[in-house]
Amino acid sequence: MTPSNVQQTLVVLKPDTVQRRLIGRIVDRFERKGFKITALKFVQLSQDQAERMYAVHEGKEFYERLMRFVLSGPVVAMVLAGPDAVEVVRGMMGPTDSGQAQPGTVRGDFGMGQPMNLVHGSDSADSAANEIAVFFEPGEIVEYTLDTDAWTHGG
């Protein structure tokens, strides 16, 4: 039995995470929290993917700088599944401005500024569905059960 609040969300570890060799440390935080990785990919974003990811920011003063940054090196894209995944993951990441992020959050512990703030996470279930489609085909997302799901997901 799966609780009704289980969601999928997209997390992208940005080029600064890759360059600073923090991939494992950040992924570990999500796994230790109890999230299940259902898809994972190391990829160099294309211009099209970056534009689709950040379409909501087009026209904003930081958009061009953000685009240059996310295209500057490879990223890690992953789909996480778990209870209230969108909200919980965003809380774990901390505010977009790393300078305002609390210790204990990804950005509070590792962030150096903007747009180099290490991670992107979907901001709603609808955004998650759209953003996941930027990186993954439906067959690339693997549904499976962990023996610990009953403990971490209340099922």
TrEMBL record:
Residues 6-143 form the Nucleoside diphosphate kinase-like domain. SUPFAM superfamilies: Nucleoside diphosphate kinase, NDK. The keyword ATP-binding applies. Its EC number is 2.7.4.6. SMART domains: NDK (SM00562). One of its GO terms (biological process) is UTP biosynthetic process. It holds the Pfam family NDK. Its cofactor is Mg(2+). Signal peptide: none annotated. GO terms for molecular function: ATP binding; metal ion binding; nucleoside diphosphate kinase activity. InterPro entries: NDK-like_dom, NDK-like_dom_sf, Nucleoside_diP_kinase. Gene3D superfamilies: Nucleoside diphosphate kinase-like domain. Keywords: ATP-binding, Kinase, Magnesium, Metal-binding, Nucleotide metabolism, Nucleotide-binding, Transferase. It is an enzyme of class 2 (transferase). The keyword Magnesium applies. Belongs to the NDK family. HAMAP family: NDP_kinase (MF_00451). This is Nucleoside diphosphate kinase. The lineage of its organism: unclassified sequences, metagenomes, ecological metagenomes.
